[in-house]
Amino acid sequence: MDLAYEFASSATSRNFTDLAPPTVDATIDALIDSLACALAGTNAPGLAQARGALSRWGDTGCTVWGGFGNAPAPIAAFLNGGSMHALDYDDTDDKVPLHANSVVLPALLADMEESQANCSGHSFLAALAVGLDGAMRVGRAGGPKGSRGWNYSVISGGIGAVLAIANLRRWDTDMTVSALGHQLAQTAGSLQSIIDGCLAKRFQPAMMAKNVLMAAALAQEKIDGPRNVFDGKAGFIRLYQDDQFDRELIEPGLERCSLVVDLSLKPYPACRFTHAPIDLALQMHARGIRPGDIRHLRIQVSGQAVNMVGRHFESETANVVDAQFSIAYCVARALERGALRLEDFSEASVHDERVGRFAANHIAIEVNDKVPFLGMVPVSFDVQLANGQHLEFRADEVSGSPAKRMTPAQLHAKVADCLSFNGVRFSADELISTVRQLRMDAPVSKVLALLA
Prior knowledge:
Blueprint: H1 3-13, H2 21-41, H3 47-54, E1 62-63, E2 70-71, H4 73-85, H5 101-115, H6 121-142, H7 152-169, H8 173-185, H9 192-195, H10 200-220, H11 236-241, H12 275-286, E3 294-301, H13 303-309, H14 320-324, H15 327-337, H16 347-350, H17 353-362, E4 363-367, E5 379-385, E6 390-395, H18 408-421, H19 428-436, H20 445-451
Parallel strand pairs: 3-4
Antiparallel strand pairs: 1-2, 3-5, 5-6
Helix pairs in contact: 1-7, 1-8, 2-4, 2-6, 2-18, 2-19, 3-4, 4-5, 4-10, 5-6, 5-7, 5-10, 6-7, 7-8, 7-10, 8-10, 12-15, 15-17, 18-19
């Protein structure tokens, strides 16, 4: 049978009691992190325009997070997914990489609000863990085809979101496979929006979240989708993976949603490939080194890092997306300030001429052929100071990863930064406490009340 049947059978049989305590912890932390990112992003460039553009389809249904009323479930999922992904601050699975929650969470919460408004915390957490694990498992088994230009947050996240909804609705295997088939029938996910630095990038997972709800609605009404979702002649593996798919990564831990514990939370609001260089820039700042002290900084990273975040930075023409996807900008700003926060990606900050000149004229980014093409580490700095001194720095782990997790204090600080950035009317403590109550089976409606 097609691999979709194995995924579907596992997803529809999972319960909260199947999850190990570390998986529950990781699911809750990722939920807190994702909601904070979404609340910070509701007024990011493009979001107000999107709300206006989509308002023609109605203002009743599900919560548009951040106090923007309601919308039909697919539209709410789209807008909420856009705000969550807008600031590029949301979680990643570094081994793919992909933003696991970017499709799964907005689709699942909208579906839950529409179909099970009284959903319990345990049911919701189980469904979310199923979806995150599924997205990560498909992403890791396939591995992104960087040369082909697929966005794995989108194409893998859509599969995870269907599995999450199937678990929440307690579907049977056949209906779940049908929904996965509908998902395959309309999946797309080009990386060109990142390459061009356009605002469409932040709406790609959002578009998929909307599509997932459409796929679920069709399957629910017994409109059948393709059954050979993964192994068919035009199935996922051949279409997106060129027949390269490591099936041995699918089964281990599937029944426990074990991969969720590998999810990374981002300490900096920029592309994950910038994080190790930012870590090193902050080390330099802590040693008293500032941009004015540096004659030349050579940064060596992986081939994919150069493709995604290694472009020459021009402050005169750059927009926020360009800055989020620029090692040079992020390193220059971190060296100057000793931190990198949401305010560093305002239009004014991005167009700071002094930072831009340093990024453009004193930083060179090169491929290190000894680093795996998709690797985020190691990253090395070769620094020539103005006084003639030569220094070297190297990062072998990335902050926020399972090997270098954010502490509870760091997560609290991130949530507080997100909420204050956008003037949210409740505290970090209130959001964190409300979400953590789901572990005690509190109703998800308490979380939705905050988001509204």
